[in-house]
Amino acid sequence: MSKSKIRIVTDSTSDIPCEVREALGIEMVPLKVHFGEEAYLDGMTISPEDFYRKLKQAERLPTTSQPSPMDFMDVYAKLAAEPGVQLISIHLSSNLSGTYQSASMAKTMLEQELDVTLVDSRSATYGIGLLVVAAAQAAREGRSKDEILAMIGELRAQTSLYFLVDTLEYLHKGGRIGKAGAVLGSLLNIKPILSVSDDGEVIPVDKVRGTKKAMSRIIELLKARYSGPVRVAVAHADTLKHAEELSALIHEHFEVVEMQYTTIGPVIGAHVGGGTVGVFMVPA
Fold this sequence. Notes:
The protein contains ten helices and 13 strands. By secondary structure, it is of the alpha/beta class. The strands form three sheets. It has a six-stranded mixed beta sheet, sandwiched between helices. Strands 2-1-6-7 form a four-stranded parallel beta sheet, sandwiched between helices.
């Protein structure tokens, strides 16, 4: 157990592998995914594998819901039982979900009792995960809260993320497409490349015919920003083959110091659909 008095909290959309969370003592508050009347806790009572299996069989698309303020209060209060603990709580973009707002309400209700600093990642999936893992590692090293918050800000500014969706059906029907509606279209085999803006909204970057060409375009976009050693995470939604193809391309074109694979969890998966692959890159 770390001697640090700083604990890191996130939500399930950060898609951090369970073994990484446990090793670093990261607390996770789950969002929920609903198939009709059945509700599941993201990453807790439904695994990504089970989710994508159900998604293929579902007659109607699943819906998702954010944690309640009480869900956050329970976790905050548990961590605050240790005297002098400071919490940094890092969450899914407030422009994509009300999760951050729930955390904010919990913080307000517990303001007198504990020290919580909220961070809007303005990102999704491992774009959040990168920040959370780095913050937890820094806390283990004994860095102060102000140092960790400054590092999160720098890391967020240095991160590029692109994701390639197999179909825009899920983003469109889930109402999360925002400006990316411009790339909707059913032209044969057009693969949209999406990113997340500085404001934390899903935005279209390009549309390319065919998965291989789309992956090559992502490499071009990354090469325009990075030339030295990099750290990379590749996330996929039930498409390990595409994740491995993209990873091989990245290794071919960059000096990769660290590569992390992760699976896009049920809540984000409900909005992007199976077949999605994403890359997150920062300077090493």
